[in-house]
């Protein structure tokens, strides 16, 4: 069977080659920084040098409040990264984030607004303070106003 100047066999072969090439590069894919999330989400970065079951528990327990605020969180520990982000992150993501947002060793929590700007830095995770700060932001106030309509 022919479609234009391509046979079905060559079309299938080309498609399979493309799929295999993508699979071979899968480990290189993924988000390298936060720019793809700008204007979509607020970001909460939490750095913990050791496993942080308490921080992760707090974040997961506040799932509804976090979702309402369009907040994605990334918990960076010595064991790796945990997040509520559904996408994948590249191997370069953690080093890029640590270099850009955690140059100050006293900072363990960074809140980033939808505009990509740093809104707050803190030594420890305080979700109530973070929610209060987010709720005072003009963009969030407009979101709440629209939800109430």
TrEMBL record:
Domain DUF4174: 34-143
Signal peptide start and end residues: 1-26
Keywords assigned by UniProt, alphabetized: Signal
Name of the protein in question: DUF4174 domain-containing protein
Species for this entry: Microbulbifer flavimaris
């Amino acid at each position: 069977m022919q479609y234009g100047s391509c046979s079905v066999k060559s079309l299938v072969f080309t498609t399979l080659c493309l799929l295999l090439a993508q699979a071979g590069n899968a480990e290189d894919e993924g988000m390298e920084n936060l720019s793809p999330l700008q204007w979509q989400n607020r970001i909460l970065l939490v750095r913990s040098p050791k496993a942080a079951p308490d921080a992760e528990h707090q974040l997961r327990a506040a799932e509804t409040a976090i979702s309402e605020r369009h907040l994605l969180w990334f918990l960076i520990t010595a064991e790796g990264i945990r997040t509520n982000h559904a996408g994948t992150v590249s191997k370069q993501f953690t080093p890029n984030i640590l270099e850009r947002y955690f140059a100050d060793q006293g900072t363990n929590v960074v809140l980033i607004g939808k505009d990509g700007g740093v809104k707050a830095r803190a030594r420890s995770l305080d979700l109530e303070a973070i929610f209060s700060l987010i709720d005072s932001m003009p963009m969030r106030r407009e979101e709440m106003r629209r939800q109430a309509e």
